[in-house]
Amino acid sequence: MLERPLTDWLPLTMKEVEKRGWDEVDIVLVSGDAYVDHPAFGTAVIGRIMESEGFRVAIIAQPNWKDDLRDFKKFGKPKYFFGVTAGCMDSMVNHYTANKRLRSNDSYTPGGEAGFRPDYATIVYTNILKTLYPDVPVLLGGIEASLRRVTHYDYWQDKLLPSILVDAGADMLVYGMGEQPLREILKLAQKGVPFSSMRNINQVAFLHDASADLRDYNSWNTVELASHEDCLEDKIKYAANFKIVEVESNKWQANRITQKVGDQVLVINPPFKTMDEAEVDKSFDLPYTRMPHPKYKKRGPIPAYDMIKFSVNMHRGCFGGCSFCTISAHQGKFIASRSEKSVLKEVDEITKHPEFKGYISDLGGPSANMYKMKGKDESICARCQSPSCIHPVICSNLDTSHKPLTEIYRKVDAHPAIKKAFVGSGVRYDLLVDDFNKNNADGNHDEYLEQLTTRHVSGRLKVAPEHTSDDTLRIMRKPSFKYFKQFKKKYDQIQEKHNLKQPLVPYFISSHPGCEEQDMANLAAETKDLGFQLEQVQDFTPTPMTVAEVIYYSGVHPYTLKPVKTAKTREEKQAQNSYFFWYKPEYKDWIRNRLSKLDRPDLAERLLGSQKKENAGKPKFKSNYSGKKKR
């Protein structure tokens, strides 16, 4: 395959700008990630959208913020504005484990090397740009800005912080998936409209002088939150705020939100309605090279790219609304699916990749099996305020048919260049359990599960029960563990029928709000009884804009304002996490002693068997707990 010309990528250097014959740049994007020109990487998507609207775009990827700031100056002053993102992850989640230890790698950097972005990257980059170019507007986007758009708890500083707009000093923020508001902003910018006048665009946030009147737009009603200062004084007010923000973020007919912070008012305009199929296709069908910029060749592979380069993302959003997860908070609870034509076109593109060997690593999405699922009567969805479509029960208005997914799997399988197409994303197993999901009149769920199990499992199938305690699962907004057992039975029967050996890989979380130490001991015993020795586990990290983060900080559930017990100290978290590893010799004495103190010898017996005489040279317990997030 011939090497592609450098001009196929958006420019990273002035030399590349000059190669295009440009005398200036319209918009400069600053990102905490290396530049990978692929639809799974936000900077590439935003850059390509801007390009499609006729703008000349350049990218400053992972600039050095410690030297003379030459990276920030290399393109000079853009004609319209700077766009800033921390990258595909919150920079603090990217940098630190659940135990606040510095990570030694960064999946979004060549060679997986750490240290190429600062803590709170959005704030650091914007502060630098505002110092160098005080008269140039800065637009924030990406997950870090999106989930920190309002007063939020920061686990790493252990305190409440105001909207990221306050500390960054940016002019405007786009939250959620940014294509729709961005196109509106670009149209107005092209007409010469200043950012200070762009106040009626959906899905943006900005700061307004509290002493000036705030105009009404678009017949929006306004809901006022407790001020940032009130939240600092009263944790309950902070918790009550969250419910409003979550509800309004997931409505089609939402209200505008305001919050006083100092002498300013934070204004968060209502979100756009979920993108339709044509809009999603338009974003995915832009002319990506699907490869990292050539400048990184000598620095080594980019792990995040290697993981997804032969994968296809078929939809966005998740209607699960899990308490610990940020997907619905950023991508929305309503599913935005691509057309079958767009998906198959991307499969074709992948087969042309010079390194492709015939294997698609993932046909999936945030949850593998939510493709094309939506309300049967969308007028009901338009009025809905529930943060989840499947908790505590599956909505009777939700069309959970797996038929479109089964059909697309079969069409990809039939492609002459495809040897195997795997599903690497986690499967939402509760949608496939008839006792939980009553919307399976024609049996298409069973057809899907058989197709998935026999054709698309790469050795092991990932599912996420997350816990075994019903009390903890209710707080997580997850179904009872009994449904996992039913799913496992169904899955095992298909395996046996086809003489397959593809184990389930269940994910679990320790230290989640509502989980106590005995719950973790029970989890260990229940999973042992099912034949699991758990590996895919993580300790809970409170991330902004999640129910679980609010409980962790405030001590109460934001929807009921009732107390919820949460493990917070290092010792409590380590104790909970250690039960995952009951099968390792170095943990056994510790677990037995611990359960003895909890007056649960029955659990000790169930986990470890009868007490035997200690061997003289038996190693003492030493926890290898790191809190490192494994997924």
UniProtKB/TrEMBL annotation:
<protein>
    <submittedName>
        <fullName>YgiQ family radical SAM protein</fullName>
    </submittedName>
</protein>
<feature type="compositionally biased region" description="Basic and acidic residues">
    <location>
        <begin position="607"/>
        <end position="617"/>
    </location>
</feature>
<dbReference type="Pfam" id="PF08497">
    <property type="entry name" value="Radical_SAM_N"/>
</dbReference>
<feature type="region of interest" description="Disordered">
    <location>
        <begin position="607"/>
        <end position="631"/>
    </location>
</feature>
<keyword id="KW-0408">Iron</keyword>
<keyword id="KW-0004">4Fe-4S</keyword>
<feature type="binding site">
    <location>
        <position position="318"/>
    </location>
    <ligand>
        <name>[4Fe-4S] cluster</name>
    </ligand>
</feature>
<dbReference type="Pfam" id="PF11842">
    <property type="entry name" value="DUF3362"/>
</dbReference>
<keyword id="KW-0411">Iron-sulfur</keyword>
<dbReference type="InterPro" id="IPR022946">
    <property type="entry name" value="UPF0313"/>
</dbReference>
<comment type="similarity">
    <text>Belongs to the UPF0313 family.</text>
</comment>
<keyword id="KW-0949">S-adenosyl-L-methionine</keyword>
<dbReference type="InterPro" id="IPR023404">
    <property type="entry name" value="rSAM_horseshoe"/>
</dbReference>
<feature type="domain" description="Radical SAM core">
    <location>
        <begin position="304"/>
        <end position="584"/>
    </location>
</feature>
<feature type="binding site">
    <location>
        <position position="325"/>
    </location>
    <ligand>
        <name>[4Fe-4S] cluster</name>
    </ligand>
</feature>
<dbReference type="GO" id="GO:0003824">
    <property type="term" value="F:catalytic activity"/>
</dbReference>
<dbReference type="InterPro" id="IPR013704">
    <property type="entry name" value="UPF0313_N"/>
</dbReference>
<dbReference type="InterPro" id="IPR006638">
    <property type="entry name" value="Elp3/MiaA/NifB-like_rSAM"/>
</dbReference>
<dbReference type="GO" id="GO:0005506">
    <property type="term" value="F:iron ion binding"/>
</dbReference>
<dbReference type="GO" id="GO:0051539">
    <property type="term" value="F:4 iron, 4 sulfur cluster binding"/>
</dbReference>
<dbReference type="InterPro" id="IPR007197">
    <property type="entry name" value="rSAM"/>
</dbReference>
<dbReference type="InterPro" id="IPR020612">
    <property type="entry name" value="Methylthiotransferase_CS"/>
</dbReference>
<dbReference type="InterPro" id="IPR058240">
    <property type="entry name" value="rSAM_sf"/>
</dbReference>
<dbReference type="InterPro" id="IPR024560">
    <property type="entry name" value="UPF0313_C"/>
</dbReference>
<keyword id="KW-0479">Metal-binding</keyword>
<feature type="binding site">
    <location>
        <position position="322"/>
    </location>
    <ligand>
        <name>[4Fe-4S] cluster</name>
    </ligand>
</feature>
